[in-house]
Amino acid sequence: MKTVLVVDDSRIMRNIVKNTFTELKIPCQFLEASNGVEALQQLQLNSINLILLDWNMPELSGIDFLKQVRAIKQYKDLPIIMVTSESAKYNVIEALKSGATDYIVKPINEKSFREKLSRITL
Q: What CATH number should be reported for the domain holding residue 46?
């Protein structure tokens, strides 16, 4: 079974993301982190197949986490999807230039979520 790391400082948002996988009948196990520091720890301790990442978090933001992870050779191809309320075009561009695989603007639209996940081999 594939492992998905859901990184968001909101427990409610982490649950919404996990429930969306369930509604779409995508079997996987979940790990959670409430900020980028915790996410880095999870990444070091576990084999992760996909990261869903919020932008605005305490301690280490999603964009800074993304840049750190992409600097590590073994994670250069790890799918990382930003799931954030940051909808400005420059945010999307910065995330994609920093190595995000894709970008989803909150609130999560189930159809869009499915389409973006279908582009990733889980």
A: 3.40.50.2300
* Mean pLDDT to the nearest integer, 61-78: 94
**pTM score of the predicted model:** 0.92
Q: Whole domain around residue 105: which residue ranges?
A: 3-118
User: Is residue 12 pLDDT above 90, yes or no?
Assistant: yes
The total number of structural domains that make up the chain: 1
CA distances 7 to 16, 56, 106, Å, are: 12, 10, 14
CB 75 within 8 A of CB 43: yes
Contact 82, 9 (CB under 8 A): no
- Where would I find the beta strands (DSSP E) of the chain? 3-7, 29-33, 50-53, 80-84, 102-105
pLDDT tens digit string along 16-53? Answer: 999 998 988 888 999 999 999 999 999 999 999 999 99
